[in-house]
Amino acid sequence: MLQPVIENTYLVEVNLGTIGVQKRINFQFVPQLEGTEIYAIQSFSATDLTLSPNGSAVASTAGLAACTVTFVIGDDEKIYTLPLSDLRSANIYGFQRMFKNLKINLTKSYITIQTITGLTSNDSVLVNFIYRPRK
Amino acid sequence: MAYTRIYENIYTFPVIVPANYVAGSKRFFDPCPELANKKVVAISLSYDTITTAGIGALYITIKDNKRNILLQNYPAQDLDDSNGTTNFRLRLFNYSDIDLNNSYFIIQGASILGQSTIFNFNFYLQ
Asked: What residue segments make up the domains of chain B, in order of their start?
């Protein structure tokens, strides 16, 4: 499996708030990621990270497995209900999952709670975007 | 790693967290002239007295000489080469202008900090 040469990274924290089955949580606007080419994405669980950069609890490994993510390119849900666990390096032999230069519309992209197993209200999901700046 | 890579030089940079560090605050790194005009092709992190929980709450922001942010809140745990996991992969970079003195880290959770908590940055140079 290939590994990316990392140019820039931005760690996005998505707080799940009050949890509920089929709840959707949209990503916040991140100006640094606007128009950039995202070529690898990583997620983390509480087994990896004890506290988020804001000091919030991180979703457990089981909680991460209970969530999916949908990434919108333009207006299309190009990456639809991808299990967040599939982006966790510890689950894929330490690698970072690579993509082909995605220009993600982050505010239209969202995380879906498929089941509340392993999740607690106000857990945070951490997603690390590895990107190339816009030219 | 699938195969061994041979690097010209690995520079280890120790980081000491002062006893009066306030959890969640920015702590800037000391200057590191050894990195000047060097190409950094990989970075790892090994720890001395900081706890595993401390590494799990440690986030690193690295800037270049033009104050551009290269890594924003990068989880140190992902760079940790000493946690005994078989899943460790050396993260690859291609930086020639890291400004460590304007880069910083934060550690969350006061209870996981100890006095003079220390970890090491390993810069693989080319």
From this structure: 9-125
